[in-house]
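Per your request, structure below.
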């Protein structure tokens, strides 16, 4: 089972949802969750919109703020996986550097627009406006560092895995696909 950039949107129900995902796995089945860690997403410090962007990224959504022992969603996944009973937990991460106006930046802008009402209700409207402006500016540069966690439900089909998280990135779609490593 795979979930990407989902956990940040279900605050404060992350543990219950992960527990349910594990319940749905067959014995020996795998759960892979990739989510953001807002603390790893700062903008280039010399850009005039960086401070507003960093503020919006760190606190605009409850799921992006620290929620488990001071850790954002991506960083909290290992303990959540352990609490849900998973074994063979592995982790990996990537850093993506994006300029304003890039395909990914445009995706984030559209995501912000769709979520706009929620931001306005929490008083983040002006900060989100600056965030959208930054992500549309080709001189603006930010990075994203999703955190990937893989864990296995105990059972008959348990395979031991060594090394980094067993997945690859399909350069055409950008999707991560899990391929269990056999020992």
């Amino acid at each position: 089972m795979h979930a990407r950039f989902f956990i940040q949107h279900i605050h404060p129900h992350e543990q219950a949802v992960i527990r349910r995902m594990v319940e749905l796995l067959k014995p020996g089945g795998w759960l892979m969750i990739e989510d953001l860690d807002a603390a790893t997403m700062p903008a280039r410090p010399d850009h005039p919109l960086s401070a507003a962007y960093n503020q919006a990224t760190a606190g605009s959504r409850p799921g992006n703020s620290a929620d488990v022992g001071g850790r954002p969603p991506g960083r909290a996944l290992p303990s959540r996986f352990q609490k849900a009973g998973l074994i063979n937990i592995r982790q990996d991460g990537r850093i993506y550097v994006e300029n304003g106006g890039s395909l990914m930046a445009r995706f984030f802008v559209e995501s912000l627009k769709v979520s706009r009402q929620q931001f306005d209700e929490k008083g983040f409207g002006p900060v989100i406006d600056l965030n959208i402006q930054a992500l549309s500016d080709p001189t603006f540069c930010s990075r994203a560092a999703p955190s990937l966690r893989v864990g296995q439900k105990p059972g008959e089909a348990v395979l031991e895995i060594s090394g980094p998280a067993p997945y690859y990135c399909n350069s055409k779609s950008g999707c991560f696909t899990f391929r269990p490593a056999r020992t």
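The longest strand covers residues 87-93.

Regards,
D.
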